[in-house]
Automatic annotation (TrEMBL), chain A:
Gene3D superfamilies the UniProt entry points to: 2.40.50.100
Sites bearing N6-lipoyllysine, chain numbering: K65
Cofactor: binding comment: Binds 1 lipoyl cofactor covalently.
Similarity comment: family membership: Belongs to the GcvH family.
InterPro entries (UniProt xref): 2-oxoA_DH_lipoyl-BS, Biotin_lipoyl, GCV_H, GCV_H/Fam206, GCV_H_sub, Single_hybrid_motif
Gene name per UniProt: gcvH
All residue ranges annotated as the Lipoyl-binding domain in the record: 24-106
Keyword Transport attached: no
Identification of the protein by name: Glycine cleavage system H protein
Nucleus as UniProt keyword: no
Organism expressing this protein natively: Gloeobacter morelensis MG652769
Subunit-structure text: The glycine cleavage system is composed of four proteins: P, T, L and H.
Length: 129, 367
């Protein structure tokens, strides 16, 4: 089954995606990540108003197989947290780019921090070799 | 998330069913020196198939031996704490190989075909070690290693018997738990045993390679879902069955591992006996227990268990049970805290989460 990487998103090599909407960014994990993890059973996320720093862990995502840290792809303030996905982590696996998003962040410094992201095409090449 | 490191697959052994696994879209992972299917569809889907119907596993990586000769029984009796002389032909015993310190070299099943002829199935990851141990300790025994020439398939689940019956030439109703027979399966000779590692009814079937592939194809064509090592691990853990190398090893004795039931205390003269008797008399300092953990996070292998500030144990296996829907674990715990109902805390990556010692197994099939 081919995995999808929507064109309009930006991607990180740590398998998070970013959906940029002005100076706010929705962060989630890619379909490749959820495919690798398998059945997701738990997600731990920061709280609204928390400050996250690029490169630091902002939570974790856990499947029966493994637990992986989530790394902040940018610095900013958490505007909202997907509490529905926290209650029902299987959503992340079934709809990672839609209802399975994780957090929405207001960028501390819009612009240069996003320069290290990949396009959908670059990300696909990276994960599929 | 960190990029997942891929194991070097090139040095790994493959079972005769490798081509079938690829064709079925299995995700393959390194396991004990073998490239094995982790899952074909989803772990929980495969787990549920075994709990509610039937599932098929390729476990050809497991070590498969035959031992024969007039003195076999006396020789193998020296190596295990169970009294294998009690077995009639057609019966089998789960037991452990012990070293001189009563440390567990492996867990395995001895199948008695006759007092002079035994089938032995051991873990895949310990196959080389076991073979060396047996070669060193068995004299005048004819040893055949069938690991490379035979497939081993496990058909497990409440519907296993009705699924298998049309393919086999014996009445499966006459084969009890741990019973075994030499049979004809899809028209080819095979060794069939009513054993498994899932907590369900089921069968393990050993065949020469071409027949084993045909058997796999017959069962998958009949609609039995193939299941991988992921589901095998959650199934065995719900049934509180130990995984060698994780829940026990050469530094643990059967008493510490809560496998005292495999020890026949009246049995004379086997490796590790004096140490086991002494340990029984004075008690062990730690014991393997079952835990249930609050919340939904998994207490994983190596996580510490605490009573206040004092570390009192360590988790050896953990999962979120697909059937029961809560985190469970096996752990070694300081004996005074190992009683049922004892409350502890598990350190889940820096956070303390309450855990309670509960009765094993976590799942028991309906009779």
């Amino acid at each position: 089954m081919a995995l999808e990487y929507p064109e309009e998103l930006k991607y990180l090599d740590s398998h998070e995606y970013l959906r940029v909407e002005g100076d706010t960014v929705v962060v989630g994990v890619t379909s490749y990540a959820v495919d690798q993890l398998g059945d997701i059973v738990f997600v731990s996320l920061p709280e609204e108003g928390d400050r996250i720093n690029r490169g630091d862990s902002f939570g974790s995502i856990e499947s029966v197989k493994a637990v992986e840290e989530l790394y902040a792809p940018l610095s900013g303030t958490v505007l909202s947290v997907n509490t529905v996905a926290v209650e029902d982590p299987a959503l992340i696996g079934s709809d990672p780019y839609g209802d399975g998003w994780l957090i929405k962040v207001r960028l501390a410094d819009p612009g240069d921090e996003l320069s290290e992201t990949m396009s959908a095409e670059e990300y696909r090449e990276r994960v599929e070799g | 998330m960190v990029a997942r490191s891929l194991g070097l697959m090139s040095d790994l052994k493959r079972t005769p069913l490798y081509a079938q696994h690829l064709q079925l879209g299995a995700r393959l992972v390194p396991f004990g020196g073998w490239e094995m299917p982790l899952q074909y569809s989803t772990l929980t889907g495969e787990h549920r198939a075994v709990r509610t119907g039937a599932g098929l596993f390729d476990i050809s990586h497991m070590g498969k031996y035959t031992l024969s000769g007039p003195d076999v029984l006396a020789q193998i009796q020296r190596l295990v704490p169970s009294d294998l002389a009690r077995l009639q032909p057609g019966q089998a015993q789960y037991t452990v190989l012990l070293n001189e310190q009563a440390g567990i070299i492996d867990d395995l099943i001895f199948y008695c075909r006759s007092p002079e002829h035994w089938v032995v199935i051991v873990n895949g990851a310990t196959n080389d070690k076991d073979r060396r141990w047996l070669a060193e300790h068995l004299q005048g025994v004819h040893f055949d290693d069938l690991t490379g020439t035979h497939t081993l398939l496990a058909l497990q689940g409440p519907a296993a018997a009705e699924t298998l019956q049309p393919l086999v030439d014996i009445d499966l109703a006459r084969l009890g738990r741990f019973g075994h027979a030499q049979v004809s399966l899809v028209g080819k000779p095979a060794f069939l045993a009513r054993t498994g590692y899932t907590g369900e009814d089921g069968f393990e079937m050993m065949s020469p390679q071409p027949a084993g592939i045909a058997l796999w194809q017959s069962l998958t064509a009949a609609g039995v879902p193939p299941c991988g090592l992921g589901a095998r691990d959650t199934l065995r853990l719900e049934a509180a069955m130990h995984l060698y190398g994780q829940d026990m090893d050469e530094s643990t004795t059967p008493l510490e591992a809560s496998l005292g039931w495999v020890v026949d205390w009246d049995k004379p003269d086997y490796l590790g006996r004096e140490i086991l008797l002494a340990q029984k008399a004075r008690g062990t300092e730690r014991r393997l227990v079952g835990l249930t953990v609050e919340g939904r996070q998994i207490a994983r292998h190596g996580y510490g268990l605490f009573d206040g500030e004092r570390q009192v144990g360590v988790v050896t296996s953990g999962t979120l049970t697909p059937t029961v829907g809560r985190p469970i674990a096996l752990a070694y715990v300081s004996t005074p805290l190992a009683r049922i109902g004892s409350t502890l805390e598990v350190d889940i990556r820096g956070r303390r989460v309450p855990a309670t010692v509960i009765r094993r197994p976590f799942y028991r099939r309906a009779l």
